[in-house]
Structure formats: C-alpha cells, structure tokens
Amino acid sequence: MEKGFQMAARAMYFLATIVLILFALVFVGVAAYSVLHSLASFDIEAATHRLLDGVGMIVLAIAIFEIAKYLYEEEIVRDRELRHADEARRTLTKFLTTIIIAASLEGLVLVFEARTSDMSAMIYPAILLMVIVFMVLGLGLYQLISRRAETIDPKEGDS
Predict the structure, then answer these.
(1) What is the greatest pairwise CA distance in the chain?
(2) pLDDT by residue (tens digit) across 38-56?
C-alpha cells in the first residue's frame, strides 16, 4: 500500500511540474506578444508600460519555472526524505532563494513603474523591498541557527 501511495504522490508531483512549466511558457508567450504588439503601435509611453509589464511577467515565469524545477528535482528525481538537518537546510535555502530573487526583481519592476506615475505609487514597491530584506535576514538567521544545531551532539545532553 505504501508503494502505491508513493507512486501516486510522484505522479501528482510530475503532473504539477508539467502544469507549472506550461504556465511559465504561457507567461513568456503573453509577455512577448504584448511587447511586440505595443511596439508595433509606435506609442512610446504604452510601449514602456508594456515592456515593464513584460519584464514582470517574465520574472513571474522564472519563479514558476524554478518552483517546477524544485518539485521535479526534490520530489521526483531524488525521491528521498530529508533525514538530515543539512539536507533540509540546503533545500529550504534553495527554495527561499528562488522566491527572494523573483520577489526582488518584481520589486524593482514596480519601482520603475512607479517612477512614471506619482510618488504615492512608490509606497507599495518600497514595502515589498522591505519585506524582501526581512526575508533575506530571516533566511540568514535560519541558516545560522540550523548550522549551530547541526554541530550539537544530541548524545552530550544525555549524560
């Protein structure tokens, strides 16, 4: 029964991976179409907004693709449990780093979009960038604590 469940779980992860890759490709296609369509109109202001929207969509596509790659590598190819603290730390760090990079790029795109409008539009990108800073600090703190925990021998406390 356990073997059947593992196969069903792997099939589900594989299906989710394929769907996420398709979504990423659709975002790239929509971004390319949108940019090319706006460039053909010869409206510079509209083209600038479409380019920034296109960059945002491509950043989102990269984040979605990275999540699909993570699912494929960690849940299908490796097919292992995270039994050691260093494995869990590396996996979580890799996953969060992908999210931090995607959110950072999106924050920068929002800053460039906000600069073309009034300054009150700068609040949301600034908040997003501050949240990203806290994510980086939290990830660094997690790594520090988890590395220290790896060096502690649990048998020392038993004596």
Answers:
(1) 78
(2) 777 777 777 777 787 788 7
Amino acid at the residue 35: V
Interatomic CA distance for residues 53 and 47, integer angstroms: 10
Convert the pLDDT of each residue in 58-100 to its tens digit. Answer: 888 888 888 888 888 877 777 555 556 677 777 778 778 878 8
Q: Where in the chain are the domains?
A: 1-80, 85-151
Q: Token pair of 142, please?
A: 């997690």
Q: Please measure the distance between the N-terminal and C-terminal CA atoms of the chain and give it in whole angstroms.
A: 41
CA 131 to chain centre: 14
Q: Is the dihedral of CA 61, 63, 66, 72 positive or negative?
A: negative
Tell me how far the alpha carbon of residue 148 is from its chain's centroid. 27
Q: Please tell me the distance from the alpha carbon of residue 149 to that of residue 66, in angstroms, as a whole number.
A: 28
The answer to whether the CB of 85 falls within 8 A of the CB of 154 is no
Q: What angle do CA 70, 71, 73 make, to 5 degrees?
A: 65
Contact 24, 15 (CB under 8 A): no
Place of tokens 């792997």: 10
- 78 DSSP 8-state letter: S
